[in-house]
Design brief:
The protein has about 140 residues and is of the alpha/beta class. About 35% of the residues lie in helices and about 20% in strands. It has four helices and six strands; from the N terminus they run βαββαβαββα.
């Protein structure tokens, strides 16, 4: 059984809803899934995981949330080489530049991105939640 963590930060609940869908998609494959707000995740646990999905909305000038999520992600970067990773998040403006930059950072860290990052503008609709479930499934396969 694969061990997957879905780690997220959410200010409005949009990214949290996406995280729940990613977790459900992974569970549907039979994976053991931990759904965790970023403050509850220990980067050292990456060594025990088969894959991890990170979720963070676009903040400010299309960047990761700076006070909680970005420091956590930076602490994880040294452990991402060869790790199966999925990315997701919501945004309210811009064109998704933060996701493209985040994906590039992960590739530079040696992560194995299992799919393009899943994004949605505002609250996730049915299509966005289905894409999140598919991301979770792909991550756990």
């Amino acid at each position: 059984m694969k061990k997957i963590a879905v780690v997220y930060w959410s200010g409005t609940g949009n990214t949290e809803a996406m995280a729940e869908a990613v977790a459900q998609g992974a569970r549907d494959t039979g994976a053991e899934v931990a759904l965790l707000a970023c403050a509850s995740f220990d980067p050292a646990s990456l060594d025990t995981l088969d894959g991890v999905a990170f979720g963070c909305p676009s903040m400010g000038c299309e960047q990761l949330e700076e006070s909680e999520f970005e420091p956590l992600f930076a602490a994880c970067e040294g452990k991402l080489s060869g790790k199966r990773v999925g990315l997701f998040g919501s945004y309210g403006w811009g064109d998704g530049e933060w996701m493209r930059s985040w994906q590039e950072t992960c590739r530079g860290d040696g992560a194995v991105l299992v799919a393009d990052g899943v994004t949605c503008n505002g609250s996730p609709d049915g299509d966005a939640l289905d894409a999140c479930k598919a991301l979770g499934k792909t991550l756990a396969e």
